[in-house]
Amino acid sequence: MIRRSRVLAATLLAAVLVTASACSSSDDDSSKTSSTAGSSGELKKVTYVTAFGAVGRDSFAWVAKEKGYFKDAGLDVTIQKGAGNAQILGLIKGKQADFAALDFTGAEIQAGKGAFTNWRAIAAIHQQTLVSIMTTADTGITKPTDLNGKTVATATGSVSELLFPAYAKLAGLDPTKVKIQGAQTTALNSLMAQRKVDGLSTFLLSKKALETASKKDVVVMPYSQYLSDLFGNAIIARDDVIAGDKDMVKKFTEAAMKGLQYTIDHPEEAAEIMHKAEPTAAVPAAVGEINAMKPYVSPPNGAPLGHLDQERVARSIAILQGNGLMPAGLSPDKVVDFSFIPAS
């Protein structure tokens, strides 16, 4: 089964690479949310939306602002709290945000379906998908095939739900033998802590929160073990923002990556900085998320922080097409502008 999936993915990859063009497409509309700096040196105002609220994985944006990285780049960045891919892509489509962080795989699927297409990824936050199966140790579930006949909760309509069949098949598990229970994202840990389900399909960064809620050890089975070419969160920009001021986008990208590097180097300080700006953000939980994502931030082969490898993006598209998550036709240049963080 795994061999068949890889053969199909390889075939689709070839098709994706053939259709990829050398540059990103963009429209000529001017940004409605950004204002150009004047000759007096006025900072350029832009809006950035986090992937999901104010949590550890998004703390680097507040770090970049607090440390002056955005200001040094000539930018006055307003940070808004996001609420998942659908809401974020809607803000981007409606030109209510210039930049955002989101789950790249989920955004690829939407672009492949033609639903949201006026954006490009400019930097990777996580080099692999962070979607995982998580369960408490008392369930006795330690490997994917142990989920046979079990109930797994996941956020309704999320990328976790969409990817589960592909993950299950590659892991040797019949996905039809697992009951998928949709739920609100905020209810997942409670469902597991109360043993109303046998496991969760969610982001591994919430491991610490699940341990706290359940008061038990947590077993994590990352999707990346079988779907290694999928990226996690990425920073995106609107097409017209890129077309209108590419130098500004480059400066934003560099400042954001400085914030990301500082965050993974100084988790406690980063969490405190975010808490200062967003008092409801719990410091211990944020530190836990930052530490959990550290292994997934650095690109392989010594590439710069944030680098998106074009061949890997092509393979990720092939995987998603091969598992029926979107039709053929999407190429890497339609979802990534590779010019902002080249390999060297």
Description:
The protein has 344 residues and is of the alpha/beta class. Helices cover 39% and strands 16% of the residues. The protein has helices at residues 2-19, 59-66, 69-72, 85-93, 104-112, 159-170, 188-193, 207-214, 239-244, 246-265, 267-277, 283-293, 310-322; strands at 44-49, 75-80, 99-103, 119-124, 131-136, 151-155, 179-183, 199-203, 218-222, 233-238. The chain has a 5-stranded mixed sheet with strand order 2-1-3-10-4, sandwiched between helices. The two termini are 37 Å apart.
Beta fraction: 15-25%
Order of helices and strands: HEHHEHEHEEEHEHEHEEHHHHH
Shape: globular
- The overall strand count is 10
Total helices: the number is 13
Structural class by SSE content: alpha/beta
Could you write a compact summary of the structure shown?
The chain has 344 residues and is α/β, with parallel strands linked by helices. The protein has 13 helices and 10 strands. The strands form 2 sheets. It has a 5-stranded mixed sheet with strand order 2-1-3-10-4, with helices on both faces. A 5-stranded mixed sheet has the order 7-6-8-5-9.
